[in-house]
Fold:
Amino acid sequence: MRCDFNVPLDKEKNITDDTRIVGALPTIRYLMERGARVILMSHLGRPDGAPDKEFSLAPVASELARKLGSPVWFANVPEVISEEVRIQAESLMPGEVMLLENTRFRMEEESKDKAVQAVFAEQLASLGDVFVNDAFGTAHRHHASTAGIAAFLPAVMGFLMEKELLYLGEALNNPKRPFVAILGGAKVADKIKVIESLLAKADTLLIGGGMTYTFMKAEGYGIGKSILDADGIELASSLLKKAKETGVKLILPTDVVAATAFENDAPSEVCGVCPGSVPDDRMGLDIGPHTIETFAQEIAKAGTVLWNGPVGVFEMPSFAGGTRAVAEAMAAATEGGAVTIVGGGDSAAAVAQFGYSERMSHVSTGGGASLEFIEGKPLPGVEVLQEKT
Structure:
């Protein structure tokens, strides 16, 4: 079973956010309860295709055992697959679980050469009878453990993968309307395909985060020292034009919180944007109170809300107000009957930080995967499955 245990760790190797582990539990328990001998695989971080203790899955094995309330055999060998691992796998009793070491300790895992990748995929497949992919967060990667293994075993999805595809698929293909999408992030170029896709599906598009200032520049407003995706200015202009042509309400911030430096304690002020500009000596780090009110009103009217990307520098308390307000408005919308989806990555981290995760319809475990799904790209880790939602 492929999981996504790519969890954040502090300096003492304590897991600081267990969302992805918790997300995998229903499928693991289902398999255990039906007598399967469960062999789990995952990556952690970017060890560059070689063993690195810094990225060992040992902390995950310990936390998983605690959550399951039963032992998890950890195959602590740097080569991931060895004779010792095979013996351990064969000795598993029905209902028992083991976790392999970080799949990215092997360079074949991410190899662009399909033949090289297939060698490792076949080795992994030799440990099992059926492949269950429950790692939506890596479904956009054609790696040995996410897609390659399906060439050697029957491949099906787990419950988390199913949930991700159902929520995101329903939101994009048959949303409860009005459909409001909220997009943050720094670069317009990174979200161009996402925005284009949503312009064909959403009723309202709210833009925040670092992208704000590229759109402002495209509209002719001064942005001071704010982050700018210079290569994205023309893209922003074309997207504004396309929104008008398609009748989609594209709403930009009308005020921002601008500071003298990228620091929590830097002097800041609320600056008007339309009309107006960010002063030359300041940078925009959050949406302002008027924009918060506008965004909240749009969210309150929505039948479906899809959010990807914080609307400010939420990691700094002084500039977290906008992102917190969006999360709060979405939580209220959920209670009012709306379908609310947080598209993974920093947005999911922000929602968790503010304590709103449980008040959303769905918080995705996949940042990049959810973006590519919204774009309409095929996901290799899903395409290989025998049954797709």
Q: What stands out?
A: The chain has a mean pLDDT of 92.
